[in-house]
Task: structure prediction
Amino acid sequence: MDIGWYLAASALIFAIGAGGVLTRRSPLVILLCLELMLNAANLALIAFARMHGNAEGQIFAIIVMVVAACEVTVGLGVIVAMHRRRLPIDVDELRELQG
Amino acid sequence: MTLHLSIMLWLPLAFGVLGLLAPPKVAGRLALLGTVLVLAYAIVYVVDFDSSMAGLQHVTDETWIGELGISYKLGVDGLNLFLVLLTALLWFSCTLWANFKDWEKPRLFYFHLALAQTSVLGALLAQDLALFVVFFDLMLVPFFFLTGIWGGAGRVQATIKLVIYTLVGSLLMLTAAIATGVLAARGNPSLSFAFSDLAQRTLGESSQQWIFLFFAAAFLVKMPAFPLHGWMPDGYRAMPLPVLALFSGVLSKVAAYGFLRVCLPLFPDATQQYQTLLLLIALASILYGSAMAFTTTETRLILGYSSVAQLGFITLGIFALNAQGAQGAILQAFNHGLVVAPAFLIVALLAARSEGSEDIRDMGGLAMRAPALAALFLIVTFATLAMPGSSNFVGEFYILLGVFQEKLVIAIVASAGVVMAAFYALRLYITTMHNRTGPEVQSREIELRDGLVLVPLVLAILALALYPQFALTRSEPTVTSIMSPGTVSGSGWTRYGP
Amino acid sequence: MSLLELFAWMTLLFPLAGTIVIGLNGRRLPRRAAGYAGTAALGLSFASAIGALVKLQALPHEKRHVVAVAWDYAYSAGVDAQLSLLVDPLSVFMILVVAGVSTLIHLYSISYLDSDEGYVRFFAFLNFFVFSMLLLVLAGNFLILIIGWAFVGAASYMLISFWYRRTTATNAGIKAFVINVLGDVGLVLGTFFIFKHLGTLDYLKAFESVKEGFPQTNDGDLVAGCILLLVGAFAKSAQVPLHTWLPDAMEGPTPVSALIHAATMVTAGVYLIARMHPLFEQAPIAADVGAIVGCATLLIAGTTALAQTDLKRVIAYSTMSQIGYMIMGVSAGAYAAGLFHLMTHAFFKALLFMAAGSLIAAMAGNQNLDRMGGFRRALPFTYGCMTIGGLALAGVPPFSGFFSKDEILLLIGDRGGWFWILYVAGYVGAFLTGLYTFRMIFRAFWGEPVPEARELEEGHLHHAEVHTNPATGEVEDTAVGFPGPEHHIAERESTMTIAMGTLAVLAVVGGFLQIPQVTHVIDHFLEPTFEGSALYAREPSGGLIAFGLVLGALVAFAGIGTAYYVWVKNPAIAVSVRERFAALYKLFLNKWYFDELIAMLVVRPALWFGAWAQQTFERIFVNGLLVGGSTGVVRAGSSAVRAAQTGFLRYYALLIVVGMVVLAFYFLLAS
Result:
């Protein structure tokens, strides 16, 4: 199959993810959308690896998965901590770090 | 015997890091141990110093960043030997003093104190322009935290002012340093920042001029010299006293030392050209600092402005551009540090006896039950005002004599500063120790631990007063080699037979 | 080290050792031990000085200048300053006078200061004072001279503000010190001018090369240097206009006044000019300046003394005026005469102050002449000493002051030319001396006895329970040092009697050392020091000598007679004269307004500048423009950048995405 299809699918998923990150206010959904973007990238990496016939892309993909797992763990942890402190689960209201 | 300067340089930091890991109560003791070892090292260097040699001794020279021509080069010679000793001595005294007090977050406090010592030693020992700049800027970091965390009222404002103002100077210096290296490399095979190489590759006159001015600005801010001393009053008010003693005693001297180490050998033409300008700035510092010192009523600021005046004298000596002036400046830099540090520590004692107030209007009559304190303070006061018989006088004598040979009028006007010094120093002594007892004053003798810190410093003052030759002999060859015929105006001089 | 050098060092080191020993251990020793230790140190010092004298006289005439070097003090970069002493007739003469008279003053102080809380401190300071003066006169080069010079100033400061709870005392101390530092600076700058040409700080080398360094007389640099040296001399010797500290220095305990006025400190200027005579002879203009200032001082001080009512201040002004004679003398080339007067003056001035101290003790601390009177019978010994001192001071034959003062005037008259003006002024001054000295003696000892005198006649010494400072009305703080209620008078204390008796004898016979055309002890002794001098040991004509001696005696008697007529015989005259010449009286009473003048010209502008700098310049320019400017720029820059930090997470995400898109487009278009 032509690599174009893979890339198209990857781009679509990435766009959906990016759109989600930009539009949603719940940190949980933003995390989910981030996952989508990462996996879109993974898809592209693996497709290129297949095309070139070497393992580098796959290695990258695996590293990205590990990073994604860490990120989700930390992110979910933060969200749980926020919930415990009864902070609003809304990124627009959490803006104390302004200049 | 080879003595690695690197060991002395990094010892304090190593003990500081150890202190971070140790239990809070031990941190201070560890830092103290570090300063004792450094002091021992410094004494060994002074004893081991070959005073017939003009060049560097105990040199360490390793490539650090080869592509940029930056090397890790350390060495002692007549210019920095006594400043190293001063640093070691004052850090020991002030760390000992700090050990008798309780600090919040002691581990962090002593770490910063140790880091400060390493950076000051680094700036003094560095024989590479880039290395010098790195250490010179690094000095600011620990003092930023020491003032910002452990300082007195208004410390945040003061710290920001101090850091931004001196950083502006440092940035100018960084620019100038890079430009020096790059411009000097033209027509040479490779880049090098080592002082010895740069001194060979003299720059063109026009680039010398702006680079000299940039360096001068950085040094004058650090000193501080009139009119760039604006950060000083707030900074001095906010710093905790042992830190202030170090800052005023040592850091200002590093700036003066910078002139001798960087400006004179590297930019000889510009130095000659701006000699009068720098002499006038120094003169203004002397007169202005003295005038301020006898009108202000805060003890810290009296000492602060007197430092402005004294640093003016040191600058005056450096820019006399002859051997006498430079000899005087080096001696005076050591003397002033040795005198101003106990003076600040005594201010702490005075404040403790007048309900914490550091204003002379709240003091008075302290000598009554404290004869030992009165005697120590009197010796320090007389040394501060450079009374003949003190080593400070020998320094000022050489400085004024050096200037006198070059610019007679400036020397005569500057000597007015000596008279003013007599007035403000005695005014400080009398209004605190003599006259009627202030309303809240509790006169009591110093305790043993205060004596442990002050008495050695005062003994050092007395010893040097008896035998200033000790310092002069060691700095003479280096000074004469710097003041080579290229920079000495007027006739040369010869040593007269005994 | 030869024995002579050893003696010189010992002379110097005994008082220093005394200071250290007393200062460190004095409080642990029994009462009065500090006093005896201090006196013993000085006694040993005096004995060493005699040893030095003997050894020096044993040397052949032309070798009587020995330099004793301890170590290199500041020997570098062309400056040749060693820690060295010069032992020659002049310095030996000075150490004999200084150590000798100081020993007696120490002896006197043992009991005089007895009830003072600061007893130990007093003797430590007193020893240090004498050490400083000895260092000054023994110094072998300019740098050590300056050190001794400044030590004397510092010691005088410590002793003048000895009762440091009195604000008047601390103010007087700081005034003395600052004026003395001004003198030090003069000395330093003068040294620079001389060093510039001669290239050495060593006395002997410098004096040898004066002619090569300054081939012409009145070379500009040499004159400038010598005048700056004179500034130092004037500040220390209280010559116009740098004299204002001396009367205020009376705030110190009376033995300190005796020490400052007789043995140490004020004579330093005279010594300096004598020591630097090769320079001054090469710069006659500077020497003339010295002579004129000395003359002006003796007249100004003499007239001021007439109007003062504080006993010690009257004696202080008399010192100023006598030092004026000496400065005038040595500046005009009458070296031996000036130093001779220095010696006799040391005897009788110390005596006068000691007697004054005894009198003040009898008055329980009160120094006001208006309150005194009729102490003749109550204090016979003190009265006798005061009279001997007064007669010597006034220059009545055959007391010591007569010979020494007349010799100065004689040699000045012998110079001829405009020196005649100084000669005449000198005799006017001598008349004034007789007048004010006996005004003081008559008012204090003659007339109706005051209650204190009556009490003493009955055997009760008046004691003040509460002291108040006459200047401010404050109650004195006796807990820290001001003498307690008890006082000590010469009639009852053997140490005081011995000291005063010895000085009284010296004040009578001291003059016989040098009687014109009869004895020449001082002339001969000092000759090796002044070997190259053209002005030394001139022999005036016999007619001038006879005329001078007769005139001097007549003037002295006239002064005393007038004093007797005005203050004893016919007291109404004093009042009417005072009213007739009210303006003049006011001028004298206010000490010629020198204090006010200096305050207006120097002190107030300096304080005004300081205040202006503090309030205006510092705030607006230094802190506002420079610091505010540079920190302001940094702050403005950072707040501009900070505006981008909104805190909206999605806003940041959008920026990232937009950035990526822009990058992507860039690569697309670029490829």
